[in-house]
Amino acid sequence: MVSKEFSRDAVAQHTSAGDLWVIIDSRVFDLSSFASLHPGGLAVLLDPEIAGQDATERFFELHRAEVLDRYARLQIGTVQGEQAQIQDHVPGSLSSVPYAEPTWLTPGYHSPYYKEHHHRFRAAVRKFVDEVVFPDAQARERDGGPPSREILDEMARLNITAMRVGPGEHLQGRVLMNGIISVEEAKFTRIHARGYADGLGGGTIIGLPPVINFAPPALRDKIVKDTLSGNKPICLAITEAFAGSDVQGLRCRARRTEDGWIVNGTKKWITNAMWAHYFTVACKADNGEIVILVVERGEGVQTRPIKTNYSSSTAGTAFVTFDNVRVPPGNQLGADQPGLNIILANFNHERWVLTAATIGGQRLIFEECFKWATQRKVFGKALSSQPVIRQKLAAMISRFESCQSWIENITFQMCRMSAKEQARHLAGQMAFLKMHATRASQATAADAVQIFGGQRHNANRNGPNPPYRCCRRRRSVPSTSRRISILTVAIAEDVLGDLGVRQAIRNMPARVRL
Ligand code: HEM
């Protein structure tokens, strides 16, 4: 705690007398011993406009606010009678930057969808993400390791993992977020957290629902228990090097034997496969039909990490090989129906999750860009004084606000429709939204790169000053959104749009004429 106060004159005088003091946001820093170590060099600090002066504006043109916290040890006091203006981020709090939060979280707006328990729930989840998940995510992004065991255990204990799979029977009897919401309320609640990283149970979100919906009860209960406790993760293994959107082109084979199945083949780009115990695998049976089997890690199953350009190894993405893997007959999902139906039934929830994440990501990028545009000076004026920059910001806002309104409407429908009704009415809507949101995300990433200019090249991940997060995302976002649009056979954007239109054509009344 720094309690000493100095007049502005005293700061200048100390500097003339040989020390090197500066004022940043009414806080006084003694840089005398740090100056020669300063990553930006000594000369900039000795500049007469900086040394002994108020360097707030110049500082924020080049650094994030958290640099000041990291170097708090250099602060020796505050300016007499002044208070710091730059707000500290309180974990779990809402952003005060315009448009950085959706309207339902912005004072003065109304929403037909969200009730008091949604606000309670959102606040608890965001606090958890800010305090617990965020620091671990930064550390794991740097060292490439999987999410820490403690985080996964805590998510399992709070039943966050269970809630991320969506509403359903698997929530019955569970205490959610230490009781902050009831199971009944959770039926209408979706996590509006800033897009969770793939590594944090992304495989469970997409790999577990087919088990919940189509596995024989005994197998279902065992896997639900194992996965939601965080002990034995699951992943969805559909895509192959040979077959992405073209599910019919799968080459992973399942041969029927007297005592079950024997699986041979490969799977590629399988999220969380590196540490998964269960694999929900789409295979081609001898008769050409698709069957979905739950394979347990064991003899004949191998996973090899894949380096992707959209995430670090934290996602546990892998190339999977199955060599003569024996699978018991009871491990087939939905034995009474074509496997393709099971894959398709999974799509709405999966696309919803991925779309929500990409919309949250766009908003975060915008927040960083907006802050930067107002604090960075060019030709003596804020970047935001340039009409071309304002146009980019306007385009970003229009894109993510349209996505937000659309997803809220679809979510509302999902909460009131049966799975069958969802498949009939929402498959097209969800496909269009996903196409729209991923394209919006790519456009926003491209705009962000332009707004950040040269700063986007900062990639000093190991340095004390984290690079602008949005720049860190600049390489990943275009490919992440692209990937989100094709992920898990959720199909490339054009195919998605086509799927929705074809469904609409099927529903077109025969007697309609111009
Ligand atoms: C409390 C005072 C300060 C601290 C703790 C500090 C710390 C840092 C750190 C950690 C970096 C590395 C940033 C990175 O890795 O991307 C940096 C860069 C830099 N700093 Fe400072 N700094 C301070 C004040 C200033 C001031 C007053 C100026 C004057 C304009 C300045 C100019 C620069 C410049 C030019 C760079 C290089 C930026 C770049 O590579 O884009 N710093 N500073």
Q: Roughly what percent helix?
A: 40-55%
CATH structural fold name of the largest domain = Butyryl-CoA Dehydrogenase, subunit A, domain 3
**Unreliable stretches covering 5 or more consecutive residues:** 188-196, 460-468, 471-490
Strand tally is 14
Mean pLDDT: 85
Task: Give a brief outline of the structure.
The protein is α+β, with helices and mostly antiparallel strands. It has helices at residues 8-16, 43-46, 56-60, 66-70, 116-143, 149-157, 160-164, 183-186, 202-214, 217-228, 339-375, 387-416, 419-452, 469-486, 493-506; strands at 5-6, 21-24, 27-30, 75-79, 234-237, 253-257, 260-270, 278-285, 290-296, 301-305, 318-327, 332-333, 377-378, 381-382. The chain has 15 helices and 14 strands.
Question: What does it look like?
Answer:
Its cofactor is FAD. Strands 5, 6, 7, 8, 9, 10, 11 and 12 form an 8-stranded mixed sheet that branches. The model is unreliable at 188-196, 460-468 and 471-490 (pLDDT under 50). 44% of the residues lie in helices and 14% in strands. The radius of gyration is 26 Å and the shape is elongated. It has 514 residues and is an alpha+beta fold. It has 4 domains: 5-79, Cytochrome b5-like heme/steroid binding domain (Flavocytochrome B2, Chain A, domain 1, Roll), CATH 3.10.120; 104-228; 234-333, Butyryl-CoA Dehydrogenase, subunit A, domain 2, CATH 2.40.110.10; 347-506, Butyryl-CoA Dehydrogenase, subunit A, domain 3 (Up-down Bundle), CATH 1.20.140. It is built from 15 helices and 14 strands.
